[in-house]
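Objective 1b: paired records.
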Amino acid sequence: MLSPEIARIRSFKVIPALPTPLQPLMDIAYNLWWTWHPEAVELFVRLDRTLWHETNHNPVKLLGTVSQQQLDTFAKDENFLNCLNRVCANLQRHLNRVPWLATTDHDPGPWSVGYFCAEFGLTECLPIYSGGLGCLAGDHLKAAGETGLPMVGVGLLYRHGYFQQYLNTDGWQQEYMPDLDFENLPIHRVRGKDRRQIRVSLQMANRTVHIALWRVIVGRISLYLLDTNLPDNDEQDRSITGQLYGGDMELRIKQEIVLGIGGVRALEAIGIRPDVCHMNEGHSAFLALERIRRLIDEFDLSFDEAREQAAASHVFTTHTPVPAGIDRFPPDMVQQYFKNYVGLLRLDMEGLLALGRENVSNRAEFFSMAVLAIRTCSGANGVSRLHGRISRKMWHQIWPNLPEHEVPVVHVTNGVHARSWLSGDLMHLLDRYLGNHWQTNPMDHEVWAAVNEVPDEELWRVHERRRQRLIAWSRRQLRRQLENRGSNELDIRAACDNLSPSALTIGFARRFATYKRGTLFLRDPQRLHRMLMDSQRPVQFLVAGKSHPADGGGKDLIRQIARFAHECEAGYKIVFLENYDIHVARYLVQGCDVWLNNPRRGMEASGTSGMKAAINGVLNCSIRDGWWDEIYDTAVGWSIGRGEEYATHEMADDLESKALYELLENQILPLFYQRDGHGVPRQWVARMKRCISVLAPLYNTNRMVQEYTERLYLPALHRARLLRQDRLKGSIELAHCKDRLRRAWPKLSIEQVSEPPESPIGVNETVLVTVVVHLGELAADEVQVQIYSGSVDNDGGLIDGQSSDLIHREDLGEGRHRFQGSVQSIASGRHGYAVRIVPGGEIFDQICEPGLILWEGVPSHLPGGNPTRQDDMADPVTAESE
């Protein structure tokens, strides 16, 4: 190879020479709309099936590689051209669909959402994803395009993508890094009017880093990817976008600076200023700082004034149920990379570091990207109902003295893009019995109810065909894996032949982290061996997944499975499929009979792989975690345990593995093999139908995107617009109002609260509550005095508490005010109430401001606090910890 260091190399691009009738193929190839339309995929498969697989399903590469003779032949094939025209017409219909919001009464007019994420899983030939987070982000964009949401995505273009996996002869995971050929991927350089690729730059410590822009078209959505692998950059900066989740902590902070700060600048360079920015996980949280900086420059604001405006338009989604999973950086590293930036925020370094601390006064605390996101967002959410509860508990310290259930973190349960994961056979079957409305409106429960009209025999025949296809593919994969490990032909043939196309097939495929307990089904080898050797009710396991290169524990789980499969007499019925990606996942979720998921409860934020299986009629057998906790019903699958908590991990593993064996032996296997005279397992098929008809309309990304829009995007948009009026008058007023409240808060007190009646009262009767408070220099309309009422437990605590506002009745003079309200008893038992003061006034709009809450009997200080602007006082951290 001749390197650029030896000689100057002038490059040019070569594109496929398509005959005129086939020119539309190029437009289809560069729009990832084809990834969820089988008829579009079939066009490329027909050109050259072998080449389609060899290019890892890359239509751009295929069109540039297929022989000219082949192209000329298809250019004269009327049948092929008719299919091409139909696909082009379908693509055009997608591009011209009326946006969902335009059909509602809450269409906000022109607006846009910027969706920032460190990874996007759109298709296997663009491997810039590692797992569930990336696939979720890719599905989010696809659904946004289908609903017509005005969204633009921002991510990083990794030169090596995510690592590729294979196992050595001992079963130990090995990694290698492909070098992605950007010119032969379905991506475009973003060019300016001068036809040069658009670039932006930023300061990284003491260096300037240049960033090039690329574009991926996903239906109606544009995804912009940032690339630092440029000759103008230092070698260490060229590698910033080298690998997804590779390198050390320092590389991670550089990647996140490029994603957040560089991403905002990239959109600005092409004329896009999103009205709302969505941080999908904390990796992109630095975008908040850049948007604050721009407001400071444009309107000459203080940090707090600009932050109110920026935060109003930010949404943060956390996918992590444990603090250890959050990116956190040591203070000195943040200082190193932001020493030249912090002054642009009109903030000192301590003020910046405090933005990333749960306890702003603890100077030793690491800088958390999730905390930065929370402190600079108006809306935050978890990704399932259970994960929402866990997130509120995890971040409770940021809102001290606020009841946990009132912590402002909601939940929007994840979904999957149905047409990206449904098998083609099942899609055709649904088209016949449901029409095409399930595709255009996948949330319509009535449409999906028609699944019950599908004859059992037809659904079962489709499912058996998918399992047979899965097993045939798995045999090919197993053969290749064994050949690469040097196995002899007899052993290879025996191993492949022992995979049965008719046996109950259980799939377990996910990232191999230790909490996901990939070896739980191996815990009792003898019991498992008996099941695997049962010739009357055969069962087999297909396992796949990657462990992070630095995760030795995860790698050891893979090794244990591989060793068991190699050494156990019945181990040939357990196959580990290497290099788990979208392609492998698609085969598994479409062809397995049961989808197994057994993480430690509370550790799986959502679990979208189970959703992908469910919409294909694959029955879930799972721990009550993530999405399964909120939907589990015996009619759609099985639950391993009932959501119990155990004293130790060892106890949990022991009891839950036994519960899994019990389900397999006594419920799952008998039900699967209970066949009628036609060979159809009627009760199993009934569960499949129930699974599809109930779960498909609920757990799809179209529902998810609409829920994000209604619960988070539109409220953020309306609030940002309100604060932005009259040159950010509302934002400035809110910042000064908060400052005034913080200074006045220590002087507030609750002086008198009327006692409840000593004698019992009847259900639905009310208790009048009168409260006298001292507000100091604050006016009565600047605060809200509230009753917090609920049931009283045996320890005297309030449970299921709800707040209600008291009415201001009288100004008593000298800062004292009387408020009054009532508590209604709606059920018998012991009830109680507490009184508190929180910020009030129209401008707050139910905002929970950290530290600004005063309960009767609790000193009015500011624990936890909130970072303040530099010009408030000489030592902002000291002021916050008073």
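Objective 1b, second protein:
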Amino acid sequence: MTALWEARVKMTGSSAMESASVLGFGPFRLIPSRGLLLEGDKPCRLGSRALLILTALVERAGETVSKHDLLARAWPDTFVDDANLRVHVAALRKALGDGQAGTRYIMNVMGRGYCFVAPVTRSDSDTQQPAVRGNTQGPSNLPAPLSRVLGRTEAIDSVAVQVPMRRCVSVVGPGGIGKTTFAVAVGERLLAVYDHGVWFIDMASVSERHQIPFAMASVLGVSITSGNPVPSLVGYLRDKHLLLLIDNCEHLVDTIAPLVETILRQAPNVHILATSREALRAEGEWVYRLKPMEAPPPVDSLTAAEALQFDAVQLFVERASASLDGYRLTDADAPAAAEICRRLDGLPLAIELIAARIDLFGVRGLATMLNDHFLLVSEGQRTAQPRQQNLLGALDWSYRLLSSVEQTILCRLAVFQGDFTLDAAVVVATGNGVSQEQVYSGILTLSSKSLITTDVTGAAREHHHRLLHVTRAFVAQKLAQSSDRDRVVRLHADYLCRLFAQAEADWEKTERQVWLASYARAIDDVRTALDWAFSPQGDAAIGVALTARAIPLGFQLSLIEEVKAWLERALLHAPLLAVPQPLAEMRLNVGLGRLSHNMGLQPGHTTGFDRAIELSQALADPAYRTEPLIALAAFNLTAGKYGAGIALAREAHAIAEASGDAKAVLAVNRIAAQVHHLNGDHVTAQQLATAVLDYPVAQIPLAYNTMPVDRQVSMRVVLARIAWLRGSPQQASALARESVEHAASDSAFSLCQALAMAAIPIALWSGDDAGAAAMTATLDQQASRVSLAFWRSWATAFRALLRVRAGIDMEPPKLSGALQSETFATFSAELLEPVTLQRAENGEAGWCRPELFRAQGEWLLAQGAPGAAKAAEGLFNNALELARQQGALTWELRAAISLTRLSQRRGQSSIGGGLLASVMQQFRDSTATADMVEARELLAQVAPVENRLPQASRRRESA
């Protein structure tokens, strides 16, 4: 008990103290008579004045205690400014975790004082006073923490177990990660372990190597009587059982390491816990690398409760509430708080500094203005070490400990916005006085000094290194001021061009997710390099080449709007290059053409494709000529021009065959399978789709995948639709599910195609409106998220159709484009439009032409015009014949249903019933689709029981 506390106790003589020895609230117990605050059974280290203020508030819980009374309690007979009270109240709130997870203890009553608002229990010391370990603890000079340690309980416990076992443990990590706070917490855990205490020795203020043993001796109270303090220091420690917590060793590590070894050898019961930005590399040392605090991953939506599960957000909120009285994280602020913590890499010092500015900018304002300058110069506590008052000081401390070559390498690495490999580092850091060997060595040194982090857990084939955001911000400023900057950024952009040339080669032999794990890391570097390349100081030729090569990555990451901006910018520069790049320019035109259509451009716009075909004619390799033809065929497919698509596919196939490029043939066959199916040639389409699926290559080459959709998705879409049309609804549903499953781990393009072209139509044709509704919601979400207007229009139309079918709304869907109009006419004859019917009559509708004729007949019958029955019969028979030619058994069944109903109206039921029964017999499974249910009900009406189905069909039904 301190003298100050004893004096205050004697002066107050509080009746509350006399009547209740223990005051409990939340997980805390306050024992006023002993000047002790416990969290559980662990003492909380508070200053004596803060403890007096807390006692005054808890004694009068629920009342407003004036500032005057609190000042008089903590500073009797002394005039102090109100600011002193605010500082101590803020420290109390931090220590109690006030504001965390909705818990409140101390409220500010504006203009009056403070009120303790938590429930308080009072108990007798004789009956319920908790056990206190303080009586068994050895002496200590551990600094009292000004705030709680958040989110690291397990790590603290783990290291606390290791220290007595290992004898020498180093806590290593970058500046600002909280090594001191962590180590002090470990020391707190071990107070009862060491008979002669836990002693904190701060080396931050020690600048000369010879001062190190004197600093230790001073803390331990050892008298030095000679010029060499080490023997006296070791002699004192030889028979002691204690823990030395040596803090901030990095600038003196070469001297501290041998001294630590000497102590460990000659004082067998002395243990060492050190903190440093690099390991001591002392004999017997066990290194614990302190990790950043965990921040929430990027998600579409995040609530406050979800965000507060992460310790980085907890720290942010705790520091924010200390700066802005009463602040609580809301659902509206949660995404911004999570973004701040992610951008700060979970670095505690950075989070604390930024959170302290919440009173000026608010959470969302902080997220918006969190630029490098603001981050580096934000000020912390005035009483902190200069290197901890802001990040600039913390980083400058580490930077000055590097050699000039290491400084140069670190600055050059600032050009990487994300992860980088060792090979990438060599490319940008070598040259102008730095050798390749020095880069290799420098990377190891910078990693050991916690200035570079290394990921060895990812799916990528190589280890990836990165700079923490705050480190990059610091050294990027130095790179920008150096004469080396222009050379380094050019090397960086050149490297990315080569990297994505390798990505193209890797694509066809690598599984998609592995490919993404390797190359998606570079997306921020691509952005930076493109901005430089197209700037006045850049090189547009590099920008054009890099854009063309990075398109597939942008599409795989569903960066639709961004990729469109890349393409438009590159196409402005491509025609102006001194040395033309026809291949790159061709791929830029193809990409923009495909992308613009998916974003809602009118189908008739083919200017980009025409230019791409023109450019391809000048390329040496004839296989390149297939690329724009494949893309234009796909464009014509979605525009409903199936005949034109087939012609383009045939032209591309001839070129691919002549070039001897088997992979080009594979790519042509993929688009050919799609256009043949939509043109109504399901037999050819099925053969092609099956062959493409079975081809032994991981991926179709990127050259033919400007907007890549995995063949595992696109070919299953084709096969699912064909299975439905050919009378296998169970197989169709299974294939559609498989396509969606593959697409879910692919791209937004893939998932939209799988849903809109297979899964949802098959559900609607089957009569599963609930399933279709759920998948439509997913389609709309995906298409909206990545700005795919083409697919979003499908979602809008599906939703309108479902509302009509449910009787909620009678407004029919607004349809756009031939393929969409054709598809929706197969859901309801009422949606048959004149233009769509004209396409059927001209032979353009292909895949659904039989159903469109049938729908026209049903529409005529519904109108009841003279001669409608005869005209309808002709249309139904035409539909029946076309369906048989296509092998489209489902359309044949629908035509048979229509003909049977017409026969029923004419009193010729037996004729229609025989036709219907013969068609039903051909179905490969008896799934209760809407069409099959209707057919069975109709057959029961028009034919005697024994003649409803041929014998074989009856046996299958009974089975």
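Residues 411 and 475 are 5 Å apart (CA to CA). Residues 485-507 form the longest helix (23 residues).
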